[in-house]
Amino acid sequence: MSLPESRHLAQRLLTYEAVAGENSEPAESAAFRVCERLRRPLIILAGLAGFRSLLSRALTLARAEAPSLSAVQVAEDGSLKGLDELASQTDKGQARDGGAVLITQLIGLLLTFIGEGLTLRLVQDVWPEAAFDGRVSEKEREKLEHSR
Fold it and tell me: What is the DSSP string of the chain?
């Protein structure tokens, strides 16, 4: 999977959680919900320290592209702290973009460390009701290529 495809997968996860969030906790950002849903299976896979390291690295990489994430931190239990404050302190578009960059970096690291097959299976296990098969249609691929 290339970087545009990992961005696409991250965006699909965020979109799915944004739609699901309309029926639940509106105060939580979609990025927060994606991280929370991935936290447990990734802790089982890599241990708490491994997950915290992975999420911390994703956050560090994301801050280079989205400095607004500087207030966000990884807590001892692997949860994210400060995403809700980010949403209230910055404009919604900037907070959403920062969350998207964070999830893209996390997906990119997962692809690097555990590979495409296991990453896609993990996503499908966490979101069984969604159709995340990892395939990008020709039309979507063209759109991704033009966005570079």
Answer: --HHHHHHHHHHHHHHHHHHHTTS-TTS-HHHHHHHHHHHHHHHHHHHHHHHHHHHHHHHHHHHH-GGGGG-EE-TTS-EESHHHHHHHS-HHHHHHHHHHHHHHHHHHHHHHHHHHHHHHHHHHH-TTS-------HHHHHHHHHT-
Directed axis angle between helix 3-21 and helix 30-65, to 10°?
140
Which pair of structure tokens corresponds to residue 17? 């959680």
- φ, ψ dihedrals at 136, nearest 5°: -115, 125
CA–CA distance, 115 with 136 (Å, rounded to integer): 17
Q: Identity (one letter) of the amino acid at 19?
A: V
Question: Could you read off the pLDDT of 103-137 as tens digits, one per residue?
Answer: 999 999 999 999 999 999 999 999 988 765 544 44
14 touches 34 (CB < 8 A): yes
Dihedral (C-alpha) 33, 70, 27, 18: value to the nearest 10 degrees? -40
